[in-house]
Design a protein that fits this description.
Order of helices and strands: EHEHEHHEHHEHHEHEHHEHEEEEH
Bound molecules: beta-D-ribofuranose, calcium ion
Number of strands: 12
Oligomer: single chain
Largest sheet: 8 strands, mixed
Distance between the termini: 24 Å
C-alpha cells in the first residue's frame, strides 16, 4: 500500500539525495526542495538540486538555505560524493532558476498554509529545519511530521557514535529532536540494510532510460567511494530515499517508538543519537518513530520501477 503525502524535501545533494528527489517527485506531492550545506558547500548543493530537477524534467521550486551549521564549524563529505557533490555523470549546465534564497521562510509558509498536512523530509543536516522551528514554534504542531535521514541506533559512520547529517549540525538536530513534532527517523541501522552494488546498477541501466542511466552513473561512483572509504565492497547504502519511502511506502519498513536525544558534548560521542532501548517503565516517553527494518529487495524493485517512469 502506498500513500501520497504532501512534502517539502530539505536536502544536500549528494548522490542519495538525488535519488530521494527522484522518488519524492513520483510518489509525493512535492511542494518544493530546500537546500542546505552538507555533503558539499551550499553553492554546490543548491546547484546540484537544480541540476537534478533539470535531469528529471521536474517543475519543482528550489529554495536556497543555510550556508553553515547553527554552531559547529562546517564539515563536508567529498570523500563520498566527490568535489562536485554529484560526481559520476555529466551534469547539465542549463539550470532552472532559483525560486528564492529563503528556504527557511519557504518551509514555514508551506507548513502554515496547510496545517497538519505537510511533511518535511530532511536528508541533510537539520540546520534549515531547526531555524524554521526556532523562528516559528507553531510549526512543531502544524507540520504533519518530519521524516529524517540521520543518526543511527546505536552506531555512526563519520565517528563510531555519530552519523554525518547529525554530526554536521548537532545543535540543529537537538532542536528538532526536542521540538515535539512527530518524527520518523531513518538512521544508519536501517539505511545500511539497503545497499546497492553492481548487480542492481546493471539492472537499472538495463531499463534503458536516460534518467536510469544518469542514476546508474551516480550509483556507480557512490559505490566505489563507499568501497574506498569504508567497506572495500563497491556498494553504497541508499540512505536518503528511505526517509521518503517511510512515508510513501510504510509497508516496506518496521519501526519502534523510542526516546532519542542528541549528544552535544561527549568527547567521543558528540552527534550521537542516543536511543533509550531499556524498555523500562521509567524511560522517557518516545519522541521518535525509529525505523528498524527495510525490505531491501522490495525497495530496490520500487526504485528501479520508479526511475524507469522518467524514460
Ligand atoms: C548521510 O550523509 C550524506 O553523505 C548522505 O547524503 C546521507 O544523507 C548518510 O550519513
Ligand atoms: Ca543527504
Amino acid at each position: 500500500m502506498s500513500h501520497r503525502p504532501t512534502v517539502v524535501l530539505d536536502c544536500d545533494p549528494g548522490h542519495d539525495d538525488a535519488l530521494a528527489i527522484a522518488v519524492a517527485a513520483r510518489h509525493t506531492e512535492l511542494l518544493g526542495i530546500t537546500t542546505v550545506a552538507g555533503n558539499v558547500p551550499l553553492e554546490l548543493t543548491t546547484r546540484n538540486a537544480r541540476a537534478v530537477v533539470a535531469v528529471l524534467g521536474l517543475d519543482v521550486p528550489v529554495h536556497r538555505g543555510s550556508e553553515r551549521p547553527l554552531v559547529a564549524e562546517p564539515r563536508t563529505a567529498e570523500f563520498i560524493h566527490g568535489a562536485s557533490g554529484l560526481d559520476g555523470p555529466a551534469l547539465p549546465t542549463e539550470l532552472p532558476a532559483l525560486a528564492s534564497e529563503d528556504a527557511v521562510g519557504f518551509l514555514i509558509d508551506a507548513v502554515r498554509a496547510r496545517p497538519g498536512e505537510v511533511w518535511i523530509v530532511a536528508t541533510g543536516p537539520l540546520t534549515n529545519v531547526a531555524k524554521a522551528l526556532q523562528a516559528a514554534p507553531d510549526l512543531a504542531e502544524a507540520v504533519a511530521g518530519i521524516s529524517i535521514m540521520g543518526g543511527g541506533v546505536p552506531f555512526g559512520n563519520v565517528t563510531a557514535a555519530a552519523e554525518f547529517n547529525v554530526l554536521v549540525d548537532p545543535e540543529a538536530a537537538d532542536v528538532v529532536f526536542r521540538s515535539g513534532a512527530r518524527l520518523v527517523m531513518a538512521g544508519l541501522n536501517v539505511t545500511h540494510q539497503w545497499r546497492v552494488g553492481r548487480p542492481e546498477i546493471e539492472r537499472l541501466r538495463a531499463t534503458g532510460g536516460r534518467v536510469a542511466g544518469f542514476c546508474a552513473d551516480l550509483l556507480s561512483f557512490y559505490g566505489d567511494a563507499y568501497a574506498r572509504a569504508f567497506s572495500g565492497v563497491p556498494e553504497g547504502p541508499l540512505h536518503d530515499p528511505c526517509a521518503v519511502l517511510a512515508l510513501t511506502h510504510p509497508a516496506l519498513f518496521e519501526s519502534t517508538p523510542h526516546h532519542v536525544v542528541v549528544e552535544l558534548t561527549g568527547a567521543h560521542t558528540r552527534g550521537m543519537t542516543l536511543a533509550d532501548l531499556r524498555g523500562v517503565r521509567r524511560a522517557a516517553p518516545p519522541n521518535v518513530e525509529v525505523l528498524t527494518r527495510i525490505d531491501a529487495a522490495a525497495a530496490n524493485d520500487l526504485l528501479v520501477a520508479t526511475l524507469a517512469t522518467y524514460g
